[in-house]
Amino acid sequence: MDIMFTTSTDGSDTLIHGRMFAPAIGIKEDPVTGNANGPLGAYLVHHKLVQHNNSLFTFKAKQGEAMGRPGIIEVQIYIEDNNPIKVKIAGNAVEVFKTELLL
User: Fold this and answer.
1) C-alpha distances out from residue 9 to 23, 69, 85, Å
2) Closest residue by Cα to residue 52 from 37, 42, 62, 61
3) SS3 at position 89
């Protein structure tokens, strides 16, 4: 899995634009994913790439624009001693397709 990203700020909010690719497991590109953005937040805190108050780092992750399936995920990284200890993600979802498997 690879995530490419840029960071910016909008007022006091941190905004991350990302794209996530995982061709090794059959995913050409995931339009919006907590599986990438949650760990990305922990990575940014762990490697001291973002500023935080040593208890919480929050950001909004935008993905999917290039695929015509845009979305936003809100990410919270809880921090102790400058290390990430817990990740929470939130957002809205839509059903893209539905299927049934008969075994």
Assistant:
1) 30, 22, 24
2) 42
3) strand
